[in-house]
Amino acid sequence: MSLLSVRDLTVSFPTSDGVVRAVRGLSFDVEAGQTLGIVGETGSGKSVSALSLLGLNPGADISGSAVFEGTELLALRQDQLRRVRGAEIAMIFQDPLSSLHPYYRVGWQICEAIRTHRRTSRAEAMRQAVELLRMVSIPQPERRVSAFPHELSGGMRQRAMIAMALALRPKLLIADEPTTALDATVQAQLMELLGGMQRELGMAMIVITHDLGLVATVADSVLVMYAGRGAERADYRTIFRSPHHPYTRGLLASIPGAAGSGGRLVPIVGQPPSLIRIPSGCAFHPRCPFAMDVCVRDQPPFVPVSGGEGHLSACWLPPDAVGVDAAADVARQRYVEGRRGPAIARLRAAVAGARPGGAVAHG
Amino acid sequence: MADTAAPVNPASDEPSLVAAPAEDHPLLRVENVVKHFPIKRGIFFKRQIGSVQAVEGVSLEVRRGETLGLVGETGCGKSTLARCITRLYPLTSGQVIFDGADISRLSARQLRTYRRRMQMIFQDPFGSLNPRRRVGSIIGDPLAIHGIADGGERKRRVQELMEVVGLNPEHYNRFPSEFSGGQRQRIGVARALALRPSLIVCDEPVSALDVSVQAQIINLLEDLQGEFNLTYVFIAHDLAVVEHVSDRVAVMYLGKIVELAETAELFGSPRHPYTAALLSASMVADPEKARSSHRVVLYGDVPSPINPPSGCRFHTRCPKAQPICSVDEPPLRVQAGDPAGHVTACHFPVAPGEQLVGAAPPISATATAFAAASPDISEGGGA
Ligand SMILES: Nc1ncnc2c1ncn2[C@@H]1O[C@H](COP(=O)(O)OP(=O)(O)OP(=O)(O)O)[C@@H](O)[C@H]1O
Ligand SMILES: Nc1ncnc2c1ncn2[C@@H]1O[C@H](COP(=O)(O)OP(=O)(O)O)[C@@H](O)[C@H]1O
Ligand code: SF4
Ligand code: SF4
Ligand SMILES: [Mg+2]
Ligand SMILES: [Mg+2]
Fold first, then answer.
1. Closest CA of chain B from A40, distance in Å
2. Which residues of chain A have a CB within 8 Å of the CB of B160?
3. CA-CA 20 to 30 A from B318: which of A204, A227, B76, B236?
4. By the 8 A CB rule, do B266 and B259 touch?
5. Helix (H, G, I), strand (E, B), or coil: what is residue B280?
6. Does ligand 2 have an atom closer than 6 angstroms to the CB of A24?
7. pLDDT exceeds cutoff 80 at B361
8. Domains of chain B
9. Which pLDDT band, with edges at 50, 70 and 90, does B8 fall under?
10. What angle (nearest 5°) sits at the alpha carbon of residue B249, between those of residues B344 and B68?
11. Average of pLDDT values for B328-351?
12. Is the ipTM, as predicted for this complex, more than 0.90?
């Protein structure tokens, strides 16, 4: 049984502009001790999904199911959730200042985190705080426990936040863009640190990021999100070598140095949709080079495809349309040829009429 | 004169204002540029108590039509150097020679002509655009400031620019908030192009963009370079992006250039230990490469530029440091066996194929100690 099983998670926010449908029927599993990478562009619903699991999304309409070690998280009251948060599931954020309070010393904050969940003397908690800071490679931890967050460099603050998250040895750590604001060398330090902790403590991780390089480096399996839904899910090799979904395929072609990208980059045309007015059928269809009439009409189900074991994709292309090379693209192209009719013609006309020289046409 | 409208400077007849024929000199030469920011204390009488040595003696050349990439960790002085090159900052010392003319000491008025030919593109397409002004007038700003075109002519030229960068010219009257991140970056590019510059200094132009949109802007910059014969200085922290766009790459550490070479040469055989560490730390979007590569993890933080380490500034974190490194500063020079354009500032450059080892104990050792020594945390309480 998986450590965490999320099924059909749906999250929306009523706003004055309309209902923001941030997450629309997302399903995934996290296995004990494993790392799941969740990738997607800004606004694809990555953070909202994670925050919803922990009840950190006030004002949101949430439905679906999220079972963690036999407990339905979405049914817990706030006080029950508070007990899960930190002790069982910990979360770290891109901006460490959002979890470190500016007015309290770092050591005191870690002590409090420990003492809220465990019966421990203040002196003992402080000893553990020093140990934790040492463990995350903060130099002179005996001195640094009494520092205020602003007295630490960005990288050190990030490490202090990790120390606090690990204080109770959670079974699952959710890291939301943990290294986005950091330099490559600091990022490498931190991921090394998290990897080491994961091995030692047997903890599972969800790494949320828009950085496919980070995913290529640390993830065991990968979930690609687009407009609030899972587009594709597979083990990390399959995602990079034999992707099925044209969105994944497009991301790989637009990243310098990515598997399967050559000389000139091939960007995905246009930009992600507004989550208030999501395109019909497959939400990716306005940007998809393989869109067919069925894509405009019907939402594709998340079903097994043939890139590898446990490979799932939400796309109307045939299950064996996997791969990043030219041959795979030719096969995709052949398949769609007879399947483009009036709906695609209307789409093309709309794009061409809207804007000669517009961002869409130029790509 | 390099430019027909070059400033007349009656006070001095600087010989360097007279340019040699275009082909003979690089478009930009930076000589020993130093930029310090004073740190002041005191309420009534501000005394200078020190200075941030943001750029400390940088020399480099940028050739016509090339892209010179500039990489380094946060705070190492990339943006400061960029602002010195474009003379948005006065220099503490050193020279900036643009198209054969020394512009290091020119006044703001004298600089006007050069400003037309050197433009900057910034990282934050949101922060750098005034939300209350229409994009047409934002893009037309440089034309207005330099009194180049007005009225219908300015509008025509702005719309042409919008077309060139892939914006819909009909959106002339819209506000920045109505555009996406990528489109706002196109607005920044259009504004930079307005005066037909020869040099564009791009400071993290794609860092704030999503990957699919980032590729659109990179391709746009590449196309424009060919079409308008542009020269770029390109700053980015994503090494894969820098590798993709640059002809040559300079690596900075704490205000100094530590290595500079042709792109393939630098990425293929880095000689400076810092470059090697930086390259090994970068995470490529290819699992085979990302997982097979030997990662050199650097320990410790970048030292403060207020009080940089003596000798080689990297010695506090360098896995190869020897006693001499903290005493003698290594000059930036061609190392034995390297081609002429590949310079490195290091006493003990990395040999081809050499594997560096991290300087501090691996983290898992400490983690093991933690896991073994504090069983009390896992007991009791809990949900
Ligand atoms: N106006 C200023 N006054 C004082 N110090 C400054 C000023 N501008 C920059 N600095 C300092 O100079 C150093 C170099 O800064 P700079 O902005 O050039 O770094 P950078 O390499 O562009 O970093 P990043 O990658 O974060 O953009 C830093 O220590 C910075 O804090
Ligand atoms: N509290 C909120 N109210 C309204 N909309 C929200 C709220 N939080 C997030 N959203 C919207 O939900 C969508 C998904 O956001 P998020 O999960 O943060 O994206 P990301 O994938 O970048 O982490 C975005 O369109 C965002 O603007
Ligand atoms: S379902 Fe259709 S539009 Fe969507 S990704 Fe697949 S081919 Fe493209
Ligand atoms: S000079 Fe010494 S300290 Fe500096 S980079 Fe070379 S080996 Fe390292
Ligand atoms: Mg987010
Ligand atoms: Mg900068």
1. 9
2. none
3. B236
4. yes
5. helix
6. no
7. no
8. 24-117+200-207+225-246 (3.40.50.300), 270-378 (no CATH)
9. very low
10. 130
11. 97
12. no
Q: Is A51 left (phi over 0), alpha (psi -120 to 50) or beta?
A: alpha
Which of B257, B296, B315 has the most ligand 4 atoms within 8 A of CB, as the residue to mutate? B315
Q: What pLDDT is attached to residue B370?
A: 45
Per residue in B222-270, pLDDT (tens digit) is: 999 999 999 999 999 889 999 999 999 999 999 999 999 999 999 999 9
Under a CB-based contact definition with an 8 Å cutoff, are residues A73 and A67 in contact?
yes
**Which ligand is closest to the CA of B122, given by its number?**
6
What mean pLDDT value characterizes chain B?
A: 85
Q: Is B248 helix (H, G, I), strand (E, B) or coil?
A: strand
| Model confidence band, residue B22 (pLDDT cutoffs 50, 70, 90) | low
Q: φ and ψ at A68, to 5 degrees?
A: -115, 115
Nearest to B233 by CA among B223, B247, B252, B244: B247
- Secondary structure in 3-state letters for chain A: CCCEEEEEEEEEEEECCEEEEEEEEEEEEECCCCEEEEECCCCCCHHHHHHHHCCCCCCCEEEEEEEECCEEHHHCCHHHHHHHECCCEEEECCCHHHCCCCCCCHHHHHHHHHHHHCCCCHHHHHHHHHHHHHHCCCCCHHHHCCCCHHHCCHHHHHHHHHHHHHCCCCCEEEEECCCCCCCHHHHHHHHHHHHHHHHHHCCEEEEEECCHHHHHHHCCEEEEEECCEEEEEEEHHHHHHCCCCHHHHHHHHHCCCCCCCCCCCCCCCCCCCCCCCCCCCCCCHHHCCCCCHHHHHCCCCCEECCCCCCCEECCCCCCCCCCCCHHHHHHHHHHHHCCCCHHHHHHHHHHHHHCCCCHHHHC
Enter the tokens of residue B220.
């746009």
Q: What is the pTM of this model?
A: 0.86
Residue B131 is predicted with a pLDDT of: 86
- CA dist., res. A270 & res. A278, Å (int): 14
| Helix (H/G/I), strand (E/B), else coil: B120 | strand
Q: Looking at CA atoms only, how far is residue B199 from chain A in angstroms? A: 23
What is the DSSP track for B16-29? Answer: GGSPPPGGGS-SEE
Q: Is A59 left (phi over 0), alpha (psi -120 to 50) or beta?
A: left
A95, A47 Cβ separation under 8 angstroms = no
B194 within 8 A of B135, measured Cβ to Cβ: no
Task: Test A137 with B291 for CB contact under 8 angstroms.
Answer: no
Compute the distance between CA of residue B310 and CA of residue B95 in angstroms, rounded to an integer: 25
Mutate to test the interface with A, among B124, B168, B212, B225 (most CBs of A within 10 A): B212
A125: chain B residues, CB-CB within 8 Å: none
Residues A225-358, CATH architecture: 3-Layer(aba) Sandwich (3.40)
pLDDT score of B283 = 87
Is the distance from CB of A321 to CB of A246 less than 8 angstroms?
A: no
CA distance linking residue A45 with residue A230, whole number of Å:
10
Taking the CA of residue B183 and the nearest CA in chain A, the distance in Å comes to: 7
- Taking residues B354-375, report their average pLDDT: 50
Amino acid at position A145, single letter: V
pLDDT score at B200 = 97
Strand A61-68 and strand A71-72: the pairing is: antiparallel
- The closest alpha carbon to A60, from A41, A79, A47, A71, belongs to A47
Q: Can you list the residues of chain A whose pLDDT is less than 70?
A: 181, 259-262, 352-363
Query: Where in chain A are all domains bearing CATH 3.40.50.300?
Result: 225-358
Residue B126 confidence class, pLDDT cut points 50, 70, 90: low
**Tell me, what's the pLDDT at B367?**
44
User: For residue A106, what pLDDT is reported?
Assistant: 92
